[in-house]
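Sample A.
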Amino acid sequence: MVKEISKYMLPLLLIFPIAQLTPTTFPPEEVVQPQEVRPLPGQLDTVPTFNSNSPELVLKEGILLSTFPPDGKKVPTAHLNFPFRGRFDIFAHHVAKAEPAENLRSLYLGIILHNPSSEPVKVNIWQAASYLSQPDAPFIQLPSFSQNLLGKIFAGPGDRVMSDVLRGVRQEIFPAQIEIPPKQSRMLLNLPIPVQGLTPPLNGRSTFMRLQSDGTVYAASLAMFARENPDGSERSLRQPEAGTPTLEEWQNLLDNGDLAGPRDKTPTPLEETGKPRIYGRVAGVVGGSRWRALLVDNPKARYLTIPQPGQVFSYALSTLHGGTLGTGQIQSAPMLVRYPDTAYRAHGNYGIQYNLKLPLYNNTQSSQTVSVSIQTPLKEDRLVKPGLRFLSTPAPQVFFRGTVRVRYKNDQNQPQTQFVHLVQKRGQPGEPLVLLKMKPRDRSLVEVDFLYPPDATPPQVLTVSTQPEPR
């Protein structure tokens, strides 16, 4: 493999294609793990999630997602008329790019809440985080398995945001509560996605919040380029009379603006069409924020019998149309409201938390070593062979990058909590999150929690295996 291109090789590259300078490589072999793949018990809750992820790349300012009523708006079709009350989540992920390259204005992301009632509304911010790709969370290469107790290991802003919220963090830039007077609006977020000084001039911001409102509110995410001074320079944060886009400027964009652009690829219908499947990106309100599952032998059982020595079984995670791993189960959250050119479902379930409890039971007469792991098999809808397919050498594409919390009791019966950061490529079997030595007839509760991270590609599986008995 050509690891580095020296100045002496550059003339060669003008003559010979790069493929001719690298040795012939063969595709990795597929490895089939014979096993049972089970649908995941439980279901999504009914907490709505405001999901703003289309267009991902924003070059034209405008409305990213509005759940406001269309009445009185210049472009009524840009408003989906969905009120929130009580618990709801907000997820937003967007990218800014200098185009043309000399246009280095910052793109601002604004999230606005409106109180339509005649009484004040209080909104509690339970957990919240917002990070940029540069400099907060660059996409760096990381090991496939890292202990991440302090939350210092991440690659990409979505990875870092979900790690924070999993730990119950509210970033210091967010207040614990905001109060919205009657018939008024307040900014929940007003932050830039700067590109100046970056090579290439490209940056992204991921944001996630868990909120509780004591009254009805409408929400919108908006994209606006930095306002300029008369001389063409960006208004500075050090100029209080100017500053970032004001509430009035955001309100004007909401009332009179159209959808931001360019629009992403329009998704194909969920039904098989014979054409390549385009899932599309999400812009709308998702039905659900958390999937709780008790993994047991059957609905009436209180425990999960471990596999026989040398055997394996898995539970499907984040399954979607065309990728149910033989279970027929689609976990993609439904869209309660959406724009017609965006995803039909929340494929990938970005920001949705999985709470998985495994009350393991060793029903054998001997001690067993049991592992619990997350794996990224090759995507299939119906299993070609009775088991999951992996690659002998994982493909280069990263399909899962995020932190998982594991709780269990060790051999001394002491409670343990671990945070493990995983980086899994397509077809990668993964490493055990926990190894348990279980005595005969022993029971052991393992809890696995994670927020499905942005930039991940479903599906994955949660796998339980028992080591073979020594010969």
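Sample B.
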Amino acid sequence: MQAILASELRYRRLFETAQDGILILDAETGQVVDANPFMKDLLGYSQEEFLGRKLWEIGPFKGTGASKIAFAELQLKDRIRYEGLPLETKDGQRVEVEFISNAYLVDKKRLIQCNIRDITERKLAEMASIRLAAIIESSNDAIMGKDLKGIITSWNKGAEKIFGYTADEMVGTSILRLIPSDRQNEENQILEKIKLGEGVMNFETLRQTKDGGLISVSVTASPIKDVSGTVIGVSKVARDITEHKAVEEKISRLNAELEQRVGERTRQLQDANKELQAFSYSVSHDLRAPLRHVLGFVDLLQKDAGPSLSEKCLRHLTTISQSAKRMGDLIDDLLAFSRIGQSEMQKTEVHLDKLVRKILGDFQAETKGRNIVWQVHPLPSVRADRDLLRMVLVNLISNAVKFTGHRAEAKIEIGCAPNGNGETVIFIRDNGAGFDPKYTGKLFGVFQRLHNQNEFEGTGIGLANVQRIIHRHDGRAWAEGVVDGGATFYFSIPKQ
């Protein structure tokens, strides 16, 4: 008797402390005669809500035809099992359970014990595992598993495609089968890192295929750990980068060829610049001397033979003198144009306010007696070559002064235009002769003039100098204008 009581006590303890839900049913009526405490943790219903009610009358089983079917089946069998039976908890959550029922006799009374285990997480894990397996199997990369001795334990379709071996041919064999003989020490190095719990990321190397060919691969290896955190194997991904490496090598060769060509072209340009410089000096010397002679002899003729010459001959001499002087100006401007491209820039912080006011001071003698209204707005500082930038401003201001020469009241405005492109934009605007907008593209070309020499003097090189200097500063130069309606010239300097 004592042994029976002890046995019942042990069963009761197991019943009360079990981590599965347990219901005891009367096999004749289907009424619940007992329910363990875990049923509340599992489904949210207390023992009292189960006791004395039939299985299909209880919340999570209510209205479930399967409950009556299962009960009827149990009246004929001693055991039934359902995997993934969907139930709803008291608070409306859905759970999947494993439902196992056993029928047995107690004091000649037939009872049914229903064990209910929550397998929701297990099912989710199984689905995740199935999805992961599908991803691995459909990957174009070679994904394989191996143990800590380098023996392959898994082999996907991507590995079969890349290396040419089937899973049956590779699983159970050494990974060394894929590694060229002169690189087999790489495997030991990878395994040593894995045993320390470290991974290998994007290691580029060569591997051997079934047909004996070599391919370039990028290898990533990660440790596989058991629940205790012990490293038990290796997960390895190999990506075929043969085409990628071929493209890299081609690009490298092209870059080397390009560098060689650039070097050759640079040497050619340096030689050409030296020749141009020599030519410039030659022009400076060889053309200036004859011009000085022409001007000198014209001056002598005017002094010595002037009184005896007719008015017409004197006009001819004047024309010769003016043309020679103009040729001298052209030579000077051409030399200046060539030097702009050769000189090394010395960039410093240039205060445009101070520079513009100094330049305007230099123009006082030239503009004496003229009615010019100057409007100079506050100007910022820029990083530029001060001497070259002065040449730009002198050219543009000189143009504004020249082309407003026929105005009773000339207006010249200098300011900074708003710009959001990382540039400082300066403008010089006048109310002078302007120009036809359709010829805007010619303005900055060498010897390009839009006005008659008799109307406005000039050599046609000033704006070409402006553009060349601004381009050397990585900036832009442009203009807007209308005939007899004034013009606005702009240039930009990148902000540092």
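B remarks: DSSP finds 13 helices and 17 strands in the chain. Residues 451-456 have pLDDT under 50 and may be disordered.
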